[in-house]
Amino acid sequence: MRVSAKMPPAPSSYELLPRSSSDLDSSTSILEDESFIKDKPRRRGHRRQLSRFVRRARRICRFCRPLYVFVAFVVFIIWQLLFNASYANPPAFSIPEGETVFLAANIIDGGLITGAWGKSVVDFVELIGKERVFVSIYGGPTEALKKLETMLPCEKKLVSEDQHPLDLGAIPRTKLPTGESRIKRIAYLAEVRNKALEPLDEMKGRRFDKVLFINDVFFDAKDAARLLWGTNLNKDGESVYKAACGVDFVKWWKFYDTFATRDAEGYSLGIPIFPWFANVGEARSRKDLLEGRDNVRVKSCWGGMSGVVLS
Q1: pLDDT, tens digit, for every residue of 32-54?
Q2: Could you tell me the CA-to-CA distances from 60 to 49, 64, 65, 70, 120 in Å, in that order?
Q3: What is the CATH number of domain 101-309?
Q4: What is the DSSP-derived secondary structure letter of residue 203?
């Protein structure tokens, strides 16, 4: 059995391709037919944006060279030393005769109690006069408090937290989204502070002019006295304030007490480097600091040391 197929008829005519460039007809050349060959469109805008980015990156890299970074760091250090240094020229002040001070403190660092901190407390008592100061401390460790107690020549009450712990069950708590119960921080700190202030209730009828509250901070006895009697002096050389705080630093250049401090209008602090306060509202606190005043008005503060006028 045979299978046969018919071939399709051949075309009667077809156009031959040119064999050489001389055979090309300019009117029908496929090389000149714009519809036949088209260049890929160029994304000029994209290239321009990319080139700008590269140029900017190169400029930034120039400033990131180790030498430039070192110079910038040195300039920053000099700026901090010039403008963030301790107050160099405070006005003179005097300690009024007869004024009494109730010194309250919370501390749990035994090394500080028997070391530099404890020595500063003793120096403050001797500076003011042992008959004019009452020292009340709540904290520990117990042995460190006992050692400090023998060093203090004034009236005192040093209570160990280990021997007289707080009733944690009576302190308000809050519940986290996870369901975990936590003691409220502010409520806990208030209880700790009140423990150091308890002798004021026990000595009813005893009068004190000022309360000096100190935390576990390094301080100088003369600076503590200046806080109490050298803050916002009037023309008669008398301090005028209701409460005043020290300035506490976690590093020599970094302001520490951002948690409790609010400026004169109630705004929180800016970045914790000089001049600390944000330039918002009337910025009274910021302006006081930049003007180099001996006191800076604030809404609230702590700073590791605070003085309160009682009379």
Answers
A1: 444 444 454 555 555 555 566 66
A2: 17, 6, 9, 15, 50
A3: 3.90.550
A4: T
